[in-house]
TrEMBL record:
Belongs to the DnaX/STICHEL family. The keyword ATP-binding applies. Residues 397-428, 451-468 have a biased composition (Pro residues). Residues 429-450 have a biased composition (Low complexity). The gene is dnaX. It comes from Paraconexibacter antarcticus. The keyword ATP-binding applies. This is DNA polymerase III subunit gamma/tau. NCBIfam families: dnaX_nterm, holA, PRK05563.1. Residues 393-472 are annotated as: Disordered.
Amino acid sequence: MSTAPSLYRRHRPRTFADVVGQEHVVRTLRNAVTQDKLHHAYLFVGSRGTGKTSMAKILASCLNCVNGPTVDPCGVCDSCISIQNAQSMDVIEMDAASNNSVDDIRELRDSVSFAPVSGKYKVYILDEAHMLTTAAWNAFLKTLEEPPPNTIFVLATTEANKVLPTVVDRCHRFDFQRPTVEQLASVLQRVAGREAIDIPPDAVALLARHATGSFRDALGTLEQLVTYASAGGDGDGTRIAVEDVLAVLGVADADLLFGALDAVAAHDARAALHAAAALAQTGRDVNQFVRDLEGHARELMLVQMLGSVPAEIAVTPDRDARLAEQAGRVAAADVVRFIDLLAAALRAMKDGADARTQMELALVKAATPEVDASAKALMVRLERLERALAAGGAPAPAAPPAVPVPAPAPAPERVSPPAPAPGLPPTPMAQAAPAPAPQATAPPATAPQAAAPPPPPPAAPAPQPPTATAPTATAAADVTLPDLLQVWPAVLDAVAPTNTQLAVGLRDARPIALVGREVTVAFDTSHQFQSKIADQAVNREVLGEAIRALTGLAARPTIEVHDLSELVVPGEAPAAPPPSPDDWVDRIKHEFDAEEIIPETDQP
């Protein structure tokens, strides 16, 4: 039983008019053939499946067609048919991945000296050219520079950076662009029409997106779907549904993706876990679902930043409208943080962690920033409080999460004084909290049955707007050194994503003075190397930006070196003296229920 050519081989473009995309390559080669300005060597660069080999064969057909040289080869003459079937004696295809030695290049160099057999030109197509060794390139260099008449070399590669510069200089280079989703969809629809395959637009869009810019992958998956539909009992296998595409590709349904992001937007961890459970029940690959979630979050980010659905991610009008609607509901900070969490989950899965656990952890952290101790999660919580206050929401329930300090702060015990919560400078959120204080203390002072107290409350909200709308600059001016010491661990967490080395070095330092905007950060004398790194201008800028993001103070850090063991910082608890030998003995006796044995001394 003979095997039929694959779908992408049967529908490979035969003329320049059949090529989808790559207009800059088509126009240049058309003009070169028409004006008889052919170069002896071309370098085609592009990712897999973008049409590099097909373009080389079209060029060979244009030159060796019975009507050639022509930009419209007939496709029916012996030369065109033999080129299409890879049987032409004048078009030699060579895989450099398996023929990359000096001996292989010598054989090619010897064959170049022979004249064309039946056509006008000999065309050598060298695929995966970057796989040639340096010695093979050197053996081939002279032939490539001065080939015999009517000989053309086409070098195709996916990694142009691995090709010797001396080779690139001798070629005309063309960079093949990845086709867009729309271009892939148009090719799939054209092929489906010729093959009598009934496939809905949504399924075509899924195939086009999953192909990631490769015509060959798109047509190969379409052929696999035809076989799958036949095995499923559809008889001729010409009907393909969206469910078939989801089953073969293992990608998540759009409803699952939108539902997961809706749960994140609503900060509903329970709904997020239900979305993960629904995925698990489908039996699809969890790793692929995480990647699909990452792609969906990226699309939301693009729509939010651009204000509309760009053409590169547009699929169908219904889905595009749903994507734009969701992008308007989900906070931008939630989307960016969700992408970071998914990237961390993918790294953990690559290191061997359980895929479902990492997926659920990312969804729960994204839906409930309160359970995430990172600085980014704290910033998300602050942004939520700012939005709630701007909308006129009650500040009281949002006040506890607004404190970006890992240590517990006794804010609930200090209700009556108008001072801000300890450990954090008064930001707009913190300043709004004292406003309800007069209302909270007034009712306990009077009896609930009295008729006189009701008139005063309507007048109480009058001073509230000025307090809630106080500028951030005022809050930043009230930052004290104890406040900065308390948020110092969060400052290190904020520095770490930008400069890990600086964050590690700052663990051995601490603020010792704050005068206006000048923050003095001291290193111990035993860490002078870390102090020099932190004292670089770019690192001081990173540190100042982290302090500003967490406290609102536009700080100007300065780096100094001190003996921290003898330095007393206001607001910082003094370091306990080191234990004496007697203290160590007492501790050992207590921990191990031991008994001290005192050696006997010799009597004189």
